[in-house]
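Progress note, project year one: complex with FE2/S2 (inorganic) cluster.
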Amino acid sequence: MAGPAQTRRRFLQTLTLSVAGLVGCWRYLTPTRATVPREVSLPATEVPQGGALVLPEHGLVVTRGRDGGLRALDLTCTHLGCRVTATENGFTCPCHGSRFAPDGAVLTGPATRALHELVCLEVGDRITVRLPEAT
Ligand code: FES
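Model obtained:
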């Protein structure tokens, strides 16, 4: 018959092995985070005066006004996060039909907030857009 010391020792061994097993499983079950670039850099000539360049692979659009002003918008719908698509008159969300003006302002809901503007800089012949934080 096992005494109290042996029972405690067996319990501690079982507990230690269980924790080690859980830690080992956790490492295999949780994805490792890939290093994702936090900026996009492109030649300034790719965004024409009074035009736009959609970068679907990065989920953003860079526009240049007729006055040369540069803007970058996140193409994530502010309603529930679907990807909006560019149209002749702005952006449309395929999920619930929100429409946004070319400057990202809400035209029709259900979205109530404008598309997020991203930090965008033009230095020399390059445009750099800072990507939104991954969620
Ligand atoms: S997610 Fe875009 S309108 Fe709902």
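The mean pLDDT is 84.
Residues 1-32 form one domain.
No further modelling is planned for this target in the current period.
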